[in-house]
Design goal:
Layout lengths: L1 H13 L9 E4 L2 E8 L3 E4 L4 E13 L1 E4 L5 E4 L4 E6 L5 E4 L5 E9 H6 L10 H10 L5 E4 L3 H8 L9 H18 L13 H16 L7 H8 L3 H12 L3 H19 L4 H7 L5 H12 L3 H6 L1
Antiparallel strand pairs: 1-2, 2-9, 3-8, 4-7, 4-9, 5-6, 5-8, 7-10
Helix pairs in contact: 6-8
């Protein structure tokens, strides 16, 4: 299995991407890799290997998969995916934010089945659960994170160096046991979105940023773009990683900070420019976001 992972790493380097750490063997047939990408996209080219399953966990940034049917799925922080290395061959991964940080876990089903970790013997995890439950027919499965999965994945980071390997080995077992017991529900699967819908969401996003002085409701956007309000909210959160309100508020605050630094506009004028009809409401929102009043921010 190492040979294929080396090819993948060389492919990353060819596209000026950086792999933070080397491939780390944890058990026979189970390897871990910390990945950091600084690029907009990455072309995946390797052999079609149905017996190797890859688990991707998104820690920061965002990864967008374009499916064979043209639909798109977005991995946001906390989300994870499973697929065979046949499903991802000759594909292109896109990183909308230009950066991505996460984990890649590679499981050779044949080798892991022959020599499983002691605690996982006789459970059929490598023989049936992973290949049949998650990757039957070389499909890809995309799952939203939850409190339990975040507890597992987060423990792969920020551990004392001398204890890092024990934590990695324990958490891999915990992850596999979690996958063995979990049930698929509509709530934990990430949604696929048609190309046309994601492009419409981007147009909505651009409209909101270009007219931050305006307050537009989701219902108004829904009527303007002929999208169901719930679909609009869910698709926006998938594409941009946060709700419409949170995303636009962040841009409003950053634009306000820029105006405070680079212009002589009054605080009332800046409040109106970023969509607040009340200076007091703007001041309260700004202080909550930056932990400092607008006039103090400008002074400092």
């Amino acid at each position: 299995m190492n040979g294929e992972l080396v090819k993948i790493q060389k492919e990353m380097e060819r596209f000026h991407q950086k792999v933070a750490n080397a491939v780390i063997p944890l058990y026979p047939g189970i390897e871990l890799c910390y990945l950091t990408f600084s690029t907009d996209s990455f072309s995946v080219q390797h052999k079609a290997l149905s017996h190797i399953i890859q688990i991707n966990y998104c820690k920061a940034g965002q990864m967008m998969w374009e499916m064979k049917n043209g639909n798109r799925i977005y991995l946001n922080p906390g989300d994870f995916s499973l697929h065979t290395m046949k499903a991802c061959t000759d594909s292109v991964l896109t990183f909308p934010n230009g950066t991505y940080q996460g984990l890649g876990i590679y499981i050779d089903l044949q080798e892991a089945s022959d020599t499983p970790p002691e605690l996982l013997k006789n459970f059929g995890i490598f023989e049936t659960i992973l290949p049949e439950k998650f990757c039957k027919g070389d499909i890809s499965v995309f799952l939203s994170g939850n409190e339990q999965t975040e507890s597992i994945f987060s423990a792969f980071y920020n551990q004392p160096e001398r204890l890092m390997l024990p934590f990695q080995k324990i958490k891999i077992l915990e992850l596999l046991l979690y996958l063995a017991k979990m049930e698929f529900t509509p709530q934990n699967k990430l949604a696929e979105y048609q190309f046309e819908l994601t492009e419409t969401i981007r147009r909505i996003h651009d409209q909101l940023l270009q007219h931050m002085e305006q307050r537009v409701t989701i219902e108004e956007l829904s009527r303007q773009y002929l999208i169901n309000p719930t679909t609009l909210k869910n698709a926006f959160k998938s594409v941009y990683g946060t709700s419409i309100a949170a995303h636009i508020k962040e841009h409003r605050m950053r634009q306000a900070a820029k105006l405070l630094k680079e212009t002589n506009k009054s605080i009332a004028e800046i409040a109106q420019a970023v969509g607040y009809d009340s200076q007091s409401k703007f001041t309260a929102a700004f202080k909550t976001y930056f932990e400092v009043l607008p006039k103090e921010y400008r002074k400092n």
